[in-house]
Every structure is written in structure tokens, then in C-alpha cells.
């Protein structure tokens, strides 16, 4: 081989080696997390929905722990969940001890608690004297964690998410804040629609009875009287005995209301019998309210706004209102 050919081969070899080195570097960066997208874990369905609205098209990746129609009270982390939490840049939680299993698994400096700045209410498991009630249901502790049910609180949760992500990912801080403001405007419009929709019903006639204690913040926000006598009566998802069913019917009759809202998991046969014997309409199944969880894609409760419109429409219907869903 001539010296010219040797020199040419050497140059080609150097170029090829450089190309391989660059390729290897690129692959190594991706394998080692060189992917510059922000990785976020969101605990509940509501928190995940808020987070998606704040993130927008920034490219951040979101892992949602609680899935649609699953209760946030029964979170069990899978190996994949734990790995996602460990590798996350931010872990966004509801707070108020609802999803502590998620925040406990994360580094404290990664956690964004959406309950920050929200005035909390006493949990339903305690009475006015601070003593535990005898009702069944989830043990919420001293404070009610269902903060999202009032749109005003949802607004604060969204802002907390935007502020937290802006600290985590300063490069997209403006986008997070702009997205949050746009979504908060929709929440403000939702709040106004609810207020206007309920105006025809006098506050004294705004009575609400549910077998689940997820709506404390909602009823307070809209001057609704909630009768707690049947709370937890069907929350354990077990079919009530004949004696328990008759006690429940008696409690419902004593409230004087025309409708009772139950969880979606209540057996339709049980719901029908309760309704027939008590003379009230029992909203359950597809007509149940979205409380602890949002619904699946395509359902009436696929997003927080959709779920809230669904709930308000049914509550209004129980008071004789015929509401039209707003364009938000």
C-alpha cells in the first residue's frame, strides 16, 4: 500500500472513530437520563388532571399513580410506581394525609403538596367535640382531604403545581404559569356557573344526602346543608343485612329529602330496593357522583371539570333544576 493510501485510510479511520464516539456519547446520554424532559409523578386522578393542564405541551412526562375509578384511599404502590417515584424530578400529591404513601416514598425536596395554602375542614370521622364518630367509611384523620371538590380549592392546587414545577424546571417556568392561569380562568368560570345555577334554590332548600363523605368542601362553598346521618352506610361495598337495610331506609326517610347520592360501586339491586322502600331516588351507578376519583376517558367524569359539571347537574336535578352544561 502506498503512503498516500495509508494516509487516506488513516483519515477515514479517524473520521469513523469520531463518528462512533459521538454516537456512543449520544446513546450514553439517553441511557443515563440525557433525555432532558422532566419526569413527574402525580398521585390521584384529580392531581394528575391538574398537572396535565399545567404542563401543557412542555414535553414533561407524567406518571399517574391512582387510575380512573380507583379510590385514592386505597393506594398500593407497584414496583413500577416506586421506580417512577424514585426517578421523578417532581412528585405531586394531594396532601392532607390522603396519599402519604406516595409522598413518603419520595425525597422530600421533590414533593409538591397541592394542599398548601388551603383552609382545611375537620374530617367527617370527628364530631364537633373532636370525638370520633361511629360511622363507617374511610378514616380521614383530623382533617378532610377532599379539598378538590370546591373549585376555589382546585384553583389553589393548580397554582401550587405551577409554582412547584417552575422551581423544578425553571426553563419552562413561564409556560407553567401561563398554562395555570388559562386553566384557572376555566375554574373561575366553572365556579360562577355553579353559583348561578344554584341561585333559584333557596339556601334552606339546598339539602344534600350522600352515603360518602367526599363533598364537605363543596357543600360549604355553595351553602348546601348536608345531612350526615347516612354517611358511610354503604361505603364498605358489602351488601347490607336486612336489619342494616331497614335502618338505612329509616334514616333516609327521616332526612325528608327526595334524593340520596351513593357511590358508583353500590349494588344496583340494593340501590333499587332502598329507593323503593324509602320513596326517594337513589343516585348510583352511572348517576353516581364523582367523588374520590375521576372516570375513564370518554365518561362524564373524564376530567375534573367534566366530573364537576356532572355532579352539579345531578344535584341540581334532585332539586328540580334542569341545568345546561357550560362551555368551558
TrEMBL record:
So what family is this one in? Answer: Belongs to the bacterial solute-binding protein 9 family.
Gene Ontology terms: biological process: cell adhesion; metal ion transport
Q: Where in the cell is it found?
A: Cell envelope
Transport found in the keyword field: yes
**UniProt biased composition (Basic and acidic residues):** 135-146
The stretch of residues making up the signal peptide is 1-31
Q: Region annotation Disordered: residue ranges?
A: 120-146
Q: What is the lineage of its organism?
A: Bacteria, Bacillati, Actinomycetota, Actinomycetes, Micrococcales
Q: Record the organism.
A: Pseudoclavibacter caeni
Which is an annotated GO molecular function term of this record?
metal ion binding
- Which SUPFAM superfamilies does UniProt cross-reference here? Helical backbone' metal receptor (SSF53807)
Location (main, coarse): other
Q: Acidic residues compositional bias: what residue ranges?
A: 123-134
Keyword Signal assigned to the entry: answer is yes
Keywords tagged on the record: Metal-binding, Signal, Transport
Tell me the protein's name: Zinc ABC transporter substrate-binding protein
The record's GO CC annotations read: cell envelope
Q: Name one Pfam family in it.
A: ZnuA
